[in-house]
Amino acid sequence: MAKSDQVPVESAFHRMSTGEEVLTPHDLSGKVAIVTGGYSGIGLETTRALAAKGVKVIVPVRSKQKAEDNLKDIEGDVETALMDLSNIPSVHAFADNMGKALSKLDLLINNAGIMATPQTRVGPGWESQFGVNHMGHFALTNALMPLLKNSTSARVVCLTSTGHKLSPIRWDDIQFESDEYNKWIAYGQSKTANALFANALSRRLKNAGGLAFSVHPGGIFTPLQRHLPKEEMVELGWINEDGSPTELAKQGFKTPEQGCSTTLWAATSELLENKAGVYCEDCNVAAPTDPESPMARYSGVEHHGCDDESAERLWEISEALLKAV
After folding, report:
1. What domains appear along the chain, each with residue ranges and CATH number?
2. Which end of the chain is more exposed for a tag (fewer CB within 10 A), N or C?
3. Residue 257 and residue 48 in contact, taking contact as beta carbons nearer than 8 Å
4. For residue range 256-266, what is the model confidence (pLDDT) as tens digits?
5. pTM to 2 decimals?
6. Would you list the DSSP string of 183-219?
7. Which entry of 39, 181, 187, 298 is annotated as an active-site residue?
8. Do 49 and 38 contact (CB within 8 A), yes or no?
Protein backbone atom coordinates (compact mmCIF):
# COMPACT_ATOMS: atom_id res chain seq x y z
CA MET A 1 0.00 0.00 0.00
CA ALA A 2 2.99 2.26 -0.37
CA LYS A 3 3.37 4.82 -3.11
CA SER A 4 4.45 2.12 -5.58
CA ASP A 5 1.03 0.39 -5.23
CA GLN A 6 -0.80 3.49 -6.45
CA VAL A 7 -1.08 2.42 -10.10
CA PRO A 8 -4.31 3.11 -12.02
CA VAL A 9 -6.14 0.13 -13.52
CA GLU A 10 -8.25 -0.31 -16.66
CA SER A 11 -11.53 0.77 -15.11
CA ALA A 12 -14.72 0.79 -17.18
CA PHE A 13 -15.86 3.88 -15.28
CA HIS A 14 -14.76 7.51 -14.94
CA ARG A 15 -15.17 10.64 -12.83
CA MET A 16 -18.69 11.37 -14.12
CA SER A 17 -20.04 7.82 -13.70
CA THR A 18 -22.93 7.45 -11.27
CA GLY A 19 -23.28 5.00 -8.43
CA GLU A 20 -26.14 3.26 -10.22
CA GLU A 21 -23.94 2.71 -13.29
CA VAL A 22 -21.10 1.31 -11.21
CA LEU A 23 -23.37 -1.22 -9.48
CA THR A 24 -25.20 -2.36 -12.64
CA PRO A 25 -22.96 -5.43 -13.27
CA HIS A 26 -23.17 -6.68 -9.67
CA ASP A 27 -25.62 -8.97 -7.87
CA LEU A 28 -25.59 -7.75 -4.27
CA SER A 29 -28.74 -9.43 -2.99
CA GLY A 30 -28.27 -10.80 0.51
CA LYS A 31 -25.44 -8.41 1.35
CA VAL A 32 -25.48 -6.29 4.49
CA ALA A 33 -24.01 -2.79 4.65
CA ILE A 34 -23.56 -0.05 7.22
CA VAL A 35 -23.21 3.48 5.79
CA THR A 36 -22.26 6.24 8.21
CA GLY A 37 -23.72 9.57 7.14
CA GLY A 38 -25.97 7.53 4.87
CA TYR A 39 -28.92 9.94 5.05
CA SER A 40 -27.29 13.08 3.63
CA GLY A 41 -25.28 14.17 0.58
CA ILE A 42 -23.28 11.45 -1.14
CA GLY A 43 -24.02 9.11 1.77
CA LEU A 44 -27.72 9.28 0.91
CA GLU A 45 -26.98 8.41 -2.72
CA THR A 46 -24.73 5.56 -1.56
CA THR A 47 -27.61 4.19 0.52
CA ARG A 48 -30.06 4.62 -2.35
CA ALA A 49 -27.84 2.80 -4.86
CA LEU A 50 -27.08 -0.11 -2.50
CA ALA A 51 -30.70 -0.56 -1.44
CA ALA A 52 -31.78 -0.64 -5.09
CA LYS A 53 -29.48 -3.62 -5.62
CA GLY A 54 -30.99 -5.63 -2.78
CA VAL A 55 -28.53 -4.74 -0.03
CA LYS A 56 -29.81 -4.46 3.54
CA VAL A 57 -28.51 -1.02 4.56
CA ILE A 58 -28.21 0.16 8.15
CA VAL A 59 -27.66 3.89 8.62
CA PRO A 60 -26.35 5.13 11.98
CA VAL A 61 -27.99 8.44 12.83
CA ARG A 62 -27.90 11.18 15.44
CA SER A 63 -31.39 12.41 14.59
CA LYS A 64 -33.88 9.67 13.75
CA GLN A 65 -36.54 12.08 12.50
CA LYS A 66 -34.24 13.93 10.09
CA ALA A 67 -32.81 10.67 8.78
CA GLU A 68 -36.18 9.05 8.25
CA ASP A 69 -37.44 12.14 6.43
CA ASN A 70 -34.45 11.99 4.08
CA LEU A 71 -34.68 8.23 3.56
CA LYS A 72 -38.46 7.89 3.15
CA ASP A 73 -38.43 7.79 -0.66
CA ILE A 74 -35.76 5.08 -0.91
CA GLU A 75 -37.02 1.71 -2.05
CA GLY A 76 -35.46 -1.30 -0.37
CA ASP A 77 -34.41 -2.56 3.03
CA VAL A 78 -33.07 0.45 4.92
CA GLU A 79 -32.96 0.77 8.71
CA THR A 80 -31.68 3.47 11.04
CA ALA A 81 -30.09 3.15 14.47
CA LEU A 82 -28.85 5.79 16.88
CA MET A 83 -25.13 6.60 16.97
CA ASP A 84 -22.94 9.68 17.36
CA LEU A 85 -19.37 9.41 16.02
CA SER A 86 -18.21 12.08 18.45
CA ASN A 87 -19.32 9.95 21.40
CA ILE A 88 -17.35 6.71 21.72
CA PRO A 89 -19.75 5.04 24.21
CA SER A 90 -22.50 5.71 21.63
CA VAL A 91 -20.37 4.09 18.93
CA HIS A 92 -19.74 1.02 21.09
CA ALA A 93 -23.44 0.75 21.98
CA PHE A 94 -24.36 0.83 18.27
CA ALA A 95 -21.76 -1.85 17.48
CA ASP A 96 -23.00 -4.03 20.34
CA ASN A 97 -26.54 -3.82 18.98
CA MET A 98 -25.30 -4.73 15.50
CA GLY A 99 -23.46 -7.73 16.95
CA LYS A 100 -26.76 -8.99 18.37
CA ALA A 101 -28.83 -8.23 15.27
CA LEU A 102 -26.48 -9.36 12.47
CA SER A 103 -24.54 -12.52 11.70
CA LYS A 104 -22.14 -10.77 9.29
CA LEU A 105 -21.27 -7.42 7.74
CA ASP A 106 -20.29 -7.35 4.07
CA LEU A 107 -19.79 -3.62 3.53
CA LEU A 108 -18.82 -0.86 5.93
CA ILE A 109 -18.84 2.57 4.32
CA ASN A 110 -17.16 5.10 6.63
CA ASN A 111 -18.70 8.06 4.85
CA ALA A 112 -19.70 10.59 7.53
CA GLY A 113 -17.50 13.57 8.28
CA ILE A 114 -17.18 17.20 9.22
CA MET A 115 -15.10 19.86 7.47
CA ALA A 116 -13.38 23.12 8.44
CA THR A 117 -15.19 23.43 11.74
CA PRO A 118 -14.44 26.01 14.43
CA GLN A 119 -12.15 24.65 17.12
CA THR A 120 -14.09 22.18 19.22
CA ARG A 121 -13.15 19.29 21.48
CA VAL A 122 -14.89 15.90 21.53
CA GLY A 123 -14.40 12.77 23.61
CA PRO A 124 -11.57 13.12 26.11
CA GLY A 125 -10.39 16.36 24.48
CA TRP A 126 -9.69 15.33 20.90
CA GLU A 127 -9.70 17.98 18.17
CA SER A 128 -13.16 17.50 16.69
CA GLN A 129 -12.29 16.81 13.04
CA PHE A 130 -9.70 14.19 14.02
CA GLY A 131 -12.08 12.89 16.68
CA VAL A 132 -15.12 12.52 14.43
CA ASN A 133 -13.61 11.81 11.02
CA HIS A 134 -10.95 9.40 12.23
CA MET A 135 -11.35 8.27 15.84
CA GLY A 136 -15.11 7.72 15.63
CA HIS A 137 -14.67 5.51 12.58
CA PHE A 138 -11.61 3.82 14.06
CA ALA A 139 -13.67 2.85 17.13
CA LEU A 140 -16.66 1.78 15.03
CA THR A 141 -14.67 -0.38 12.61
CA ASN A 142 -12.74 -2.13 15.35
CA ALA A 143 -15.93 -2.84 17.27
CA LEU A 144 -17.53 -4.30 14.12
CA MET A 145 -14.48 -6.41 13.25
CA PRO A 146 -16.07 -9.73 14.32
CA LEU A 147 -18.98 -9.13 11.93
CA LEU A 148 -16.63 -8.11 9.11
CA LYS A 149 -14.59 -11.27 9.61
CA ASN A 150 -17.77 -13.36 9.47
CA SER A 151 -18.25 -12.24 5.87
CA THR A 152 -16.33 -14.19 3.25
CA SER A 153 -15.36 -11.03 1.37
CA ALA A 154 -15.98 -7.94 3.49
CA ARG A 155 -14.96 -4.54 2.21
CA VAL A 156 -14.44 -1.35 4.21
CA VAL A 157 -14.39 1.96 2.35
CA CYS A 158 -13.07 5.02 4.18
CA LEU A 159 -13.87 8.39 2.64
CA THR A 160 -10.84 10.63 2.51
CA SER A 161 -10.39 13.72 0.34
CA THR A 162 -7.96 15.68 -1.77
CA GLY A 163 -7.91 17.69 1.45
CA HIS A 164 -5.33 15.17 2.69
CA LYS A 165 -2.83 17.22 0.69
CA LEU A 166 -3.20 20.05 3.22
CA SER A 167 -1.46 18.22 6.05
CA PRO A 168 0.25 14.98 7.01
CA ILE A 169 -0.34 13.64 10.52
CA ARG A 170 0.94 16.22 12.99
CA TRP A 171 2.72 13.63 15.11
CA ASP A 172 3.92 16.10 17.75
CA ASP A 173 0.62 17.95 18.18
CA ILE A 174 -2.28 15.96 16.71
CA GLN A 175 -4.85 17.65 18.94
CA PHE A 176 -3.64 21.26 18.43
CA GLU A 177 -2.74 21.56 22.09
CA SER A 178 0.41 23.62 21.41
CA ASP A 179 -0.01 25.21 17.99
CA GLU A 180 -2.67 27.71 16.98
CA TYR A 181 -5.70 25.98 15.54
CA ASN A 182 -6.16 26.07 11.76
CA LYS A 183 -9.44 24.54 10.59
CA TRP A 184 -8.10 23.55 7.15
CA ILE A 185 -4.91 21.98 8.48
CA ALA A 186 -7.03 20.08 11.00
CA TYR A 187 -9.32 18.90 8.21
CA GLY A 188 -6.35 17.87 6.08
CA GLN A 189 -4.85 15.87 8.93
CA SER A 190 -8.15 14.05 9.49
CA LYS A 191 -8.38 13.14 5.81
CA THR A 192 -4.80 11.84 5.83
CA ALA A 193 -5.81 9.79 8.85
CA ASN A 194 -8.74 8.29 6.91
CA ALA A 195 -6.42 7.20 4.11
CA LEU A 196 -3.81 5.75 6.46
CA PHE A 197 -6.51 3.95 8.46
CA ALA A 198 -7.67 2.06 5.35
CA ASN A 199 -4.06 1.20 4.58
CA ALA A 200 -3.44 -0.35 8.01
CA LEU A 201 -6.90 -1.91 8.23
CA SER A 202 -6.35 -3.84 5.00
CA ARG A 203 -3.58 -5.85 6.66
CA ARG A 204 -5.83 -6.71 9.60
CA LEU A 205 -8.63 -7.96 7.34
CA LYS A 206 -6.40 -9.98 5.03
CA ASN A 207 -6.57 -13.35 6.80
CA ALA A 208 -10.38 -13.21 6.79
CA GLY A 209 -10.49 -12.35 3.07
CA GLY A 210 -11.50 -8.73 3.68
CA LEU A 211 -10.29 -5.60 1.92
CA ALA A 212 -10.13 -1.91 2.82
CA PHE A 213 -9.72 1.15 0.62
CA SER A 214 -9.79 4.92 0.93
CA VAL A 215 -11.74 7.06 -1.52
CA HIS A 216 -11.65 10.68 -2.61
CA PRO A 217 -15.20 11.23 -3.90
CA GLY A 218 -14.49 14.50 -5.71
CA GLY A 219 -15.82 18.00 -5.14
CA ILE A 220 -19.55 17.98 -4.41
CA PHE A 221 -21.89 20.55 -2.89
CA THR A 222 -23.32 18.78 0.17
CA PRO A 223 -24.09 19.65 3.82
CA LEU A 224 -20.35 19.10 4.43
CA GLN A 225 -19.94 22.80 3.59
CA ARG A 226 -22.34 23.89 6.34
CA HIS A 227 -19.59 25.39 8.52
CA LEU A 228 -18.20 27.58 5.73
CA PRO A 229 -19.44 31.18 5.52
CA LYS A 230 -20.60 32.41 2.13
CA GLU A 231 -17.65 34.83 1.92
CA GLU A 232 -15.16 32.00 2.25
CA MET A 233 -16.82 29.90 -0.44
CA VAL A 234 -16.75 32.95 -2.74
CA GLU A 235 -13.05 33.39 -1.97
CA LEU A 236 -12.42 29.70 -2.69
CA GLY A 237 -14.05 30.15 -6.09
CA TRP A 238 -16.91 27.74 -5.38
CA ILE A 239 -19.85 30.15 -5.55
CA ASN A 240 -20.67 33.59 -6.92
CA GLU A 241 -21.83 36.50 -4.78
CA ASP A 242 -25.44 35.54 -5.51
CA GLY A 243 -24.83 32.04 -4.16
CA SER A 244 -24.87 30.28 -7.54
CA PRO A 245 -22.05 27.85 -8.48
CA THR A 246 -19.13 29.43 -10.34
CA GLU A 247 -18.07 28.18 -13.76
CA LEU A 248 -15.08 26.53 -12.04
CA ALA A 249 -17.46 24.67 -9.73
CA LYS A 250 -19.75 23.66 -12.59
CA GLN A 251 -16.81 22.19 -14.47
CA GLY A 252 -15.08 20.53 -11.53
CA PHE A 253 -17.81 19.59 -9.06
CA LYS A 254 -19.80 16.39 -9.28
CA THR A 255 -23.43 15.71 -8.48
CA PRO A 256 -24.10 13.60 -5.36
CA GLU A 257 -25.07 10.71 -7.69
CA GLN A 258 -21.63 10.97 -9.32
CA GLY A 259 -19.94 11.61 -5.98
CA CYS A 260 -20.91 8.20 -4.58
CA SER A 261 -19.59 6.26 -7.57
CA THR A 262 -15.98 5.82 -6.44
CA THR A 263 -17.18 4.62 -3.04
CA LEU A 264 -19.34 1.98 -4.72
CA TRP A 265 -16.61 1.08 -7.19
CA ALA A 266 -14.19 0.48 -4.32
CA ALA A 267 -16.87 -1.56 -2.54
CA THR A 268 -17.42 -3.91 -5.48
CA SER A 269 -14.75 -3.85 -8.21
CA GLU A 270 -12.89 -7.08 -8.92
CA LEU A 271 -10.00 -4.97 -10.20
CA LEU A 272 -9.12 -4.14 -6.59
CA GLU A 273 -8.74 -7.72 -5.37
CA ASN A 274 -4.94 -7.43 -5.32
CA LYS A 275 -4.82 -3.72 -4.48
CA ALA A 276 -5.68 -3.82 -0.78
CA GLY A 277 -5.41 -0.51 1.04
CA VAL A 278 -5.00 1.79 -1.94
CA TYR A 279 -6.35 5.35 -2.28
CA CYS A 280 -8.92 5.70 -5.06
CA GLU A 281 -10.45 8.57 -7.04
CA ASP A 282 -12.67 8.89 -10.11
CA CYS A 283 -13.53 5.16 -10.11
CA ASN A 284 -9.89 4.14 -10.29
CA VAL A 285 -6.76 3.73 -8.23
CA ALA A 286 -5.17 7.16 -7.86
CA ALA A 287 -1.66 7.77 -9.13
CA PRO A 288 0.91 9.48 -6.90
CA THR A 289 0.64 13.25 -7.09
CA ASP A 290 2.55 14.73 -10.02
CA PRO A 291 4.00 17.97 -8.61
CA GLU A 292 4.42 19.33 -12.15
CA SER A 293 0.76 18.90 -13.02
CA PRO A 294 -1.57 21.94 -12.90
CA MET A 295 -4.04 19.55 -11.22
CA ALA A 296 -1.63 18.54 -8.45
CA ARG A 297 -3.80 20.19 -5.80
CA TYR A 298 -6.91 18.34 -6.94
CA SER A 299 -5.81 14.84 -7.96
CA GLY A 300 -3.38 12.11 -7.01
CA VAL A 301 -2.28 10.91 -3.60
CA GLU A 302 0.57 12.31 -1.53
CA HIS A 303 3.20 9.97 -0.12
CA HIS A 304 2.13 10.87 3.42
CA GLY A 305 -1.35 9.52 2.61
CA CYS A 306 -0.24 6.06 1.49
CA ASP A 307 2.84 5.27 3.57
CA ASP A 308 2.72 1.89 5.36
CA GLU A 309 4.98 2.96 8.21
CA SER A 310 2.88 6.05 8.92
CA ALA A 311 -0.28 3.94 8.76
CA GLU A 312 1.03 1.55 11.41
CA ARG A 313 2.21 4.43 13.59
CA LEU A 314 -1.21 6.05 13.43
CA TRP A 315 -2.91 2.74 14.25
CA GLU A 316 -0.83 2.38 17.42
CA ILE A 317 -1.56 5.98 18.47
CA SER A 318 -5.27 5.53 17.77
CA GLU A 319 -5.43 2.34 19.84
CA ALA A 320 -3.78 4.16 22.76
CA LEU A 321 -6.18 7.12 22.45
CA LEU A 322 -9.17 4.76 22.40
CA LYS A 323 -8.00 2.89 25.49
CA ALA A 324 -7.87 6.17 27.36
CA VAL A 325 -11.58 6.89 26.82
Report:
1. 3-219+258-323 (3.40.50.720), 227-253 (no CATH)
2. C
3. no
4. 899 999 999 99
5. 0.91
6. HHHHHHHHHHHHHHHHHHHHHHHGGGT-EEEEEE---
7. 187
8. no
